[in-house]
Amino acid sequence: MPTILRQFPFFETHTTALAPGGSVTVRPYQIVVWVSLHPMGRPDLPPDAPRFPAILDSGHSHNFSITEEHLFHWAGFAPGALRTLGTIRIAGRRVPLVAANVWIHGNQSGQRDVLAARPAFCIQLDSGIAVYPEGIPAVPRLPLLGLRGLRRADLQLHVDCRKCRVDLYTASPFWPF
Amino acid sequence: MRIDEATCAYEIGPLVARSQAAFRRDLPELLKTHYRQWVAYHGEDRIRFGRTQFELYEECYRRGLHDDEFVVRSVEPEMPDEIDATELINT
Description:
The structure holds 2 protein chains of 2 kinds.
Chain A: E1 3-9, E2 15-19, E3 22-26, E4 32-39, E5 52-56, E6 64-67, H1 68-73, E7 84-90, E8 93-98, E9 100-104, E10 121-123, E11 129-132, E12 144-145, H2 147-152, E13 155-160, E14 165-170
Parallel strand pairs in A: 5-12, 6-11
Antiparallel strand pairs in A: 1-14, 2-3, 4-5, 4-9, 6-12, 7-8, 8-11, 9-10, 13-14
Chain B: H1 14-33, E1 38-42, E2 45-50, H2 53-62, E3 71-74, E4 82-83
Antiparallel strand pairs in B: 1-2, 1-3
């Protein structure tokens, strides 16, 4: 089975990850993966697509959540650049869902922040990603990747809590795009 | 249709809204017959089912549709309309 993340580490202490524009704090036990965003329906991720960290959060009930600021400064999309598919509500406010897919970059085995040369894997998302504009009372500190998208892509996630390592792989012997 | 003043950059196109409404109307039946397949809607019209999202986007473009004229959805239970703010705390 093609592997996306190989022996991908997480840590018991605070660490930092280099995001576009500076480093960010990664809290203990947070699994931070490297992703890019690209408009839905586009099967080829440009090689220069910005890569940024996102927390793989099994407690997040949506596909992917990101602030408008990170969408612009990290992912490279201005507000309104991605078409709006709908909305969700948070704390009584409307949050737009926009038409983007998440691409996960593979790692070099055992390394969190050193990416592999193999192509990124596209999670074809239903309903798009949630973008939190300024003024929303609760926003994700870092982008969040929930299990819903991994389920849609039939991915298999293995967390080895003894070794603090994660493997993520596809169920099928080839990537279907 | 505009979401609110704070999100005025995010306008939902009328055909996208109609396509979403048609999908939601059909979803209960589709869950019985086409679970986890992808499906494309252009307004009230269901274009066709497919194995991947990319395949259906390609089909919509082949038919001359623009991005703001269709949706491609997965036949599965919809995401909840409201997100629990506590999910975002301490991230």
